[in-house]
Amino acid sequence: MHARPVVGPLLRVRGLLVSNVFLLDGGSGDRWIIDSGHVLERPLLLAGLRRSGFLPGEVSGVLLTHRHSDHAGNAAFLRRTFGLRVFAHRADAEVLEGRQRAPRLEPSSGDPIAWAFAQIENHTRTTVPVDVALAGGEQIGSLEVHHAPGHTEGSVLYRHVGTRSLLSGDALLAAVPPLTVAQRMTLPHPDYAVDLDQALASLRALHAAALDYDNLLAGHGRPILGEARRLAEDLLASASR
Ligand SMILES: [Zn+2]
User: Fold this and answer.
1) What is the Å distance from ligand 1's center to 238 Cα?
2) Cα–ligand 1 centroid distance for 68 (angstroms)
3) What's the CATH code of the domain at 138?
4) How many structural domains does the chain have?
5) Sequence-separated (6 or more) residues with CB below 8 Å from residue 191
6) With 90 as the cut, is the pLDDT of residue 20 above it?
7) Residue 167 in 3-state DSSP?
């Protein structure tokens, strides 16, 4: 088994070191790959898909949480090779489709590793045609789309209603950047956010609007099951900005 069951029909591809790729196997018409990982981990992703029995030809599409290279890195390959439709928020589609340049990340934390990763992102162009441009508020299969700008302009959260699970990309993390070794819930990292204040405001607004979930399946770190919403509220309440 190369995709580990997380909760209900949600699976996590095993063996990926950079970023998480989740699978949702909700049956015909509701099979999704959520994020596509870093291009360097393509062989691991393909092995994970193959060995989990998740046939790319039966997948409904690739849902991107945002445009960064460690999440959208294999989307063009999956689209080209398996004919999968790619979904992303329309604001990130501007960059993914090459109409706009990504704003440069300007690291300010003083962390040299975070600085180095930011420079790599600044020098990486991740492009893919976006077949379905999202606005937020849609229902895609059994997932709801929630726009949460700030980490990138078009960051989205996908909420799986049936299992009360939130797939958050980098808008809310389950491991501490930049090395993501420490496993705990954490807010977006200032060095990688287009607008950190906006990222926090997005999260606060969604929680104030009663975004309801128990489980967090973030772009980095192990899934947090059971009390994720309370942890997120505590984090947001204690944030210094
Ligand atoms: Zn990111």
Assistant:
1) 23
2) 5
3) 3.60.15.10
4) 1
5) 105, 107, 108, 109, 111, 114, 115, 117, 118, 177, 178
6) yes
7) strand
What is the band of 94 on the pLDDT scale with cuts at 50, 70, 90? Answer: very high
Distance 123 CA to ligand 1 centre (A): 14
Residue 53 alpha carbon to ligand 1 centre in Å: 28
pTM above 0.85, yes or no: yes
The structure tokens 């999440």 sit at 71
> How remote is the C-alpha of 160 from its chain's centroid?
14
The whole domain housing 218 covers 3-238
| pLDDT over 80 at 236, yes or no | yes
Structure confidence by residue, pLDDT tens digits, 45-88: 999 888 888 888 889 999 999 999 999 999 999 999 999 999 99
Ligand 1 centre to CA of 192 (Å) is: 7
Residue 66 Cα to ligand 1 middle (Å): 7
Structure confidence at residue 176 as a pLDDT band (50, 70, 90): confident
Span from the CA of 119 to the centroid of ligand 1 (angstroms)? 13
Contact 111, 76 (CB under 8 A): no
Give me ligand 1 centre to Cα 144, in Å.
Answer: 20
